[in-house]
Give the backbone structure.
Amino acid sequence: AALQEKGAVQEYPLQLRRKNGDILEVETAVTVQYDENGMAQNYLGIVHDVTAQKQAIAAMQERQETAYTFQQKLQTLQRVTTLLDQTESLDDLYRQAVEMGHADLGFERVGLLLYDDHTGFMQGTYGINERVL
């Protein structure tokens, strides 16, 4: 009834399912053809597959979100690096590096180990972990 009143529906989106189960994204345009008395006689429809277009748009949006997230992490890393550069002692540097790695960079577990070149051993300084290092 609405189609008969308006005459045409342009760019009407639909999702169709193929026999193999894949979803097909389409846009349809439907128009009504009337007889000489103004009665609906035929419906003419065109279906346009826009699956690839929708997939490309979704992929582009995902890349933009990834790029934005990466940019945010770089800015946070720059801020953390600047703050760590201002520490006055190695002990403060170690502690703040672990704390900022957890709080600002979102690392669940952070540990700072120092490697002794002469002995070949590593020694823990500070860490955030459910298990003991």
About this structure: The first strand starts at residue 8 and ends at 17.
